Amino acid sequence: MKPSSFLYFARFGIKTILFRKKTPILGTVILTDKCNLSCKHCSVNNKNAVIHPYNQIKSEMKLLYNMGVRILFFCGGETFLWQDGSKTLRQLVIEAKEMGFLIVNVVTNGTFKLDLPEADLILLSLDGNKEKHNQIRGDTYDRIIDNIKNATADNICFYMAVNQINKDTIRHVCTLAKETGHVRAVSFNFHTPYPDTQNLALSREEKQTCCNVIAEMMNQGVPVFNLKSAFPYLIDNKFPTPCHQCVVIENGKISTCGRCIDVPGLCEKCGYFFVAEYTLLFQGNVKIMAEMLKTYLKYI
Residue 249 in contact with residue 27, Cβ under 8 Å? Predict the structure, then answer.
């Protein structure tokens, strides 16, 4: 991370904590809900199978920037399916950087060629070992591993949603992250039980077990892009929601924290690690502050 970016985020954090501000710093643009997969835990893919046009996406990026957002995510659907004429995902990342966003990340299922060196992080969904990943996402594991090996930059971060199917494969994904070239770290979430996916949710005891495993792997030197000090809050869902410092925009609609905010009762069952981390950070949790500083300087 550039020193100027670090200073910007430090000032933002201090102002937010001292004055209880609710200005967003992290924003997500949904490029499309179209996806080439039909994953068992997903409830947002191919509802309309629409690819939003370039001019709309550019306007949404400017809107988020003017709101104060400086960490930008591009999400889907599948982001690499996005294209409008000659404009591709790569152009969007480059333009976001030129616009002034300090960190630009992309979320993908990893089934397309990973040629995006301009992104700070490519958050790539890998949901367990080959058997469990393919059970969730179809026969894609080998293709994804090949794409990682042929990636053009070392900016990949595994992004694993832990659920009832893959909860016993955390060690596998951690070890793979540590041993695979082009992979910088692994980031975890617990399954958030959207409608029709409640059967995949973990119990408190299962969350505790998973966190114990993740902490053990961190102690062994596995690069994990999560904060250990947030684990107790995630296990008991005792962190404030929604996160006012995060926003999502999809087809012109802005949602505080995420699209799930519109689902009654879902915030109380949130499994997104970053939501816990950010809300605790901006409440002034000293342990979270110190660990986030160390983690972000290491992996971004």
Answer: yes
> How many Å apart are CA 154 and CA 174, to the nearest integer?
17
Q: Identify how many contiguous H helices and E strands the chain contains and give both numbers.
A: 10, 10
Q: Nearest Cα to 188, choosing from 171, 38, 78, 180? A: 171
Find the helix or strand (DSSP H, E) in which 208 lies.
Answer: helix 204-219
CA distance 275 to 254: 17
Helix axes 54-67, 89-99, angle to 10 degrees: 30
Stretches where the chain sits below pLDDT 50 are none
Asked if 51 and 34 touch (Cβ cutoff 8 Å), the reply is yes
Chain centre to alpha carbon of residue 130: 21
Q: Residue 240: is the preceding peptide bond cis (ω within 30°)?
A: no
Cα separation, 276 vs 106, in Å, equals: 21
Task: State the pLDDT at residue 242.
Answer: 95
Among the CATH numbers 3.20.20.70, 3.90.550.10, 2.60.120.340, 3.40.47.10, which is that of 3-299?
A: 3.20.20.70
For residue 152, the 8-state DSSP code is S
- State both tokens at 1: 């991370």
pTM of the entire predicted model:
0.95
Give the pLDDT of residue 46: 63
What pLDDT, on the 0 to 100 scale, is given for residue 260? Answer: 86
pLDDT the model gives residue 44: 72
The helix/strand/coil state of 94 is helix
Task: Provide CB contacts within 8 A for 8, sequence distance 6+.
Answer: 70, 102
pLDDT of amino acid 176: 98
Q: How many Cβ atoms are within 10 Å of 98's Cβ, its own excluded?
A: 8
